[in-house]
Amino acid sequence: MPILPKSKSKPQKAPISAHKVAELAGVSRSAVSRTFTEGASVSDSTRRKVMAAAEKLGYHVNHLARGLIQHRSGIVCLIVAEMQTPYQSAFLEAVTRRLQEIGKVVMVLNTAGLAANVEAALRQTLNYRADATVVVSGSPSASLIETCIDNGQRVILINRDDPIVGPECIMVGNEDAAREACLMLLRAGCTRLAVVSSTAGTPSVTARENAFVAAAAAEGFAVTVSRAGPTGYAAGGDSARQLLAASLRPDGVFCVTDLLAIGFIDAARQDFRLSIPDDLCVIGFDDIAEAGWLGYNLTTFRQPIGEIAEYIAAILTTDEVATQNKKFPVQVVWRRSVRP
């Protein structure tokens, strides 16, 4: 085997310092600092000299070091699981884009949704001195949230109605949507109701499931609940095979997410040759892009992702902490998976 010549690696260069910029521009080090500090006083001639020198040398401000001195890193961490799912990816796209527009540095920490992984990620945000953390998935312990808040970090919980004092909570109308879904199915003439949930047990999933069952009970109807697996396409199909194989199969189904609903519809059509909505009405939740595809035409509830992203950006541009939970209503999106 031929011996390859050793590559001569170039030594890593040190970053251009503000001191070098000051020397080239013929100004003081503090003048360079004021030039790159928003709102600081500096003459136009000095600013031009500094900017020209910085451009020539390729100088960039170390915002992280400056932020730590000022006890502001500008970092916002997003703790999220199941990033590959349509809803989570759409949510991340909207939130990260909006936060970057207001000058925040976004750090996404991917977890498997387990409590231990979520807590490890939240501890990591303390190591990076993040200004704020948005917990999109999982349920960190109250003590750890309090530790983050005690260290000057803001904690924003998404879709978790929690009695913990301190974090800011953003909710959507899970219960309202589930109750409306029940009434929609009853108005369509459905009498054998079912809810397709999951084993995830997240606060939002549980809230939708419980509210649907309670609404049906108030109208005098029993509900069959199926939890065939994690919140995803495969679990929706498995739930369909469990529910539709029964002698008294349901004729109206509320799926707590669109991904579950899409899996349910595919199995209902392919395995049982059922027609949607003639034989079976199906309602989802989230309004992911696939819900509007012609193959599904899924009636669902739309979460206002854009409004939530805008709200997160707005509260992170102020030092005032929201003392009450913020709740966003969801919107019914009528398509053809429910009989008119």
From TrEMBL:
In this chain the HTH lacI-type domain maps to 21-70
The record's listing under InterPro entries reads: HTH_LacI, LacI/GalR-like_sensor, Lambda_DNA-bd_dom_sf, Peripla_BP_I
UniProt keyword annotations, A-Z: DNA-binding, Repressor, Transcription, Transcription regulation
Task: Please provide, alphabetically and separated by semicolons, the GO molecular function terms listed in this UniProt record.
Answer: DNA-binding transcription factor activity; transcription cis-regulatory region binding
Q: Which Pfam families match?
A: LacI, Peripla_BP_3
Source domain of life: Bacteria
- What's the protein name? LacI family transcriptional regulator
Instruction: Give the source species.
Output: Cypionkella aquatica
